[in-house]
What we know:
The structure is a homodimer.
Chain A: E1 3-9, H1 12-15, H2 17-28, E2 33-38, H3 41-50, E3 57-58, E4 61-62, H4 66-90, E5 94-98, E6 106-110, E7 122-127, H5 130-136, E8 140-144, E9 147-149, E10 155-157, H6 160-171, E11 176-182, E12 201-202, H7 204-213, H8 220-232, E13 237-241, E14 252-254
Parallel strand pairs in A: 1-2, 1-11, 2-8, 5-8, 11-13, 12-14
Antiparallel strand pairs in A: 3-4, 6-7, 9-10, 13-14
Helix pairs in contact in A: 3-4, 6-8
Subcellular location (chains A, B): Cytoplasm
Pfam family, one (chains A, B): AA_kinase
EC number (chains A, B): 2.7.2.8
Amino acid sequence: xxxxxxxxxxxxxxxxxxxxxxxxxxxxxxxxxxxxxxxxxxxxxxxxxxxxxxxxxxxxxxxxxxxxxxxxxxxxxxxxxxxxxxxxxxxxxxxxxxxxxxxxxxxxxxxxxxxxxxxxxxxxxxxxxxxxxxxxxxxxxxxxxxxxxxxxxxxxxxxxxxxxxxxxxxxxxxxxxxxxxxxxxxxxxxxxxxxxxxxxxxxxxxxxxxxxxxxxxxxxxxxxxxxxxxxxxxxxxxxxxxxxxxxxxxxxxxx
Amino acid sequence: xxxxxxxxxxxxxxxxxxxxxxxxxxxxxxxxxxxxxxxxxxxxxxxxxxxxxxxxxxxxxxxxxxxxxxxxxxxxxxxxxxxxxxxxxxxxxxxxxxxxxxxxxxxxxxxxxxxxxxxxxxxxxxxxxxxxxxxxxxxxxxxxxxxxxxxxxxxxxxxxxxxxxxxxxxxxxxxxxxxxxxxxxxxxxxxxxxxxxxxxxxxxxxxxxxxxxxxxxxxxxxxxxxxxxxxxxxxxxxxxxxxxxxxxxxxxxxx
Lengths: 255, 255
């Protein structure tokens, strides 16, 4: 099977012009098929604030009422996505920006209300990569915004890590998929203040131990849970690292 | 050659939920290949206002400074585009939302400053429909936002009527193209207050006469000039009408 590299980037990396340019330069050096999944939460929070819309987060996840859905549709689907597309085009990569609604790529349902009402947040049901594969096979580089749809005309906000792992899992049926979660740090750290404390090989037992000990916490937990799920579904390699180490392959490897 | 219907919609039609739904229902009834080009100026003005950004228009065209470029990227590329895509998907059409940056579809250059500095407004240089045709031939329905790019990493704001006529002209090399400009009225009117005064057949001589007499004025002039240019480049039929008359084919026909 052909290799497909999926890069997920979130946080400051994708939202500040300088680090975004550095990322796109790194991305340019990846050979073969590639696909980028991005976040944009900081910009969404900023735009929401300017529009007088309050951002509410629960356990690192955004509560998405109707107004906030408009904001993330604008920011993820428009501003952040199209900036990346234009930046890739300028580097000679034939990028296309997509949400889960485009090409019916990712169908989801609105998360049922239990303790918390997350609002218009989507849990993924189905990835339909038929036309996406057609594009990838034409050397097109898909750039995916973290939005899905319910097939009934509604867009939904879906976590970008989840989008990346769902796409990686489904596309493992057709490609040898290498999934990189990129963020500011060099990997999962034992000591968050010490960049040299990267955990290089992380298996499920060690993950559970670190989780219980509180070494791994907060947003890193769902990211890693997503990663291990994707690993079990056939994704060839999963690495958590910073953009500088896409080329070296150094960082935390899920094993 | 296969038939391709291109519908350009702007104004209130595309920006109010009820009229948008009516439009998408009409659009659903078009058989064969189809493509939608949309505007979104009212929403852009509204969002800009909420963000404290003043909208300046010259001869119906938006002055697009850096802040306004962010707004139109969010509103055209994100909010309006993805709402339409989700709405078409819910009706069983496999829509994909695109700007001119996606797939390198429409390259433009920043309009040179003469009397007026329009800012980040793009004049079209080149339409590259290779991957677009691939998608159309797979029964995908492209939904095009009025944004272009300069190939150097910059997005540009480009009039939606122009986008529609440029796409129609280029695609006439591959399809028998029917181009509909849809807006609130039943066609070009001799008396703007009388919906029954539709000019059914409009040729260039009559257009110039009406233009000189002031019967046709304002935004209708560039729309018609775009239309006549597209007609001369091989677009099979060009009609100016409202969404209700897409099916009947009644309205102002450029001959």
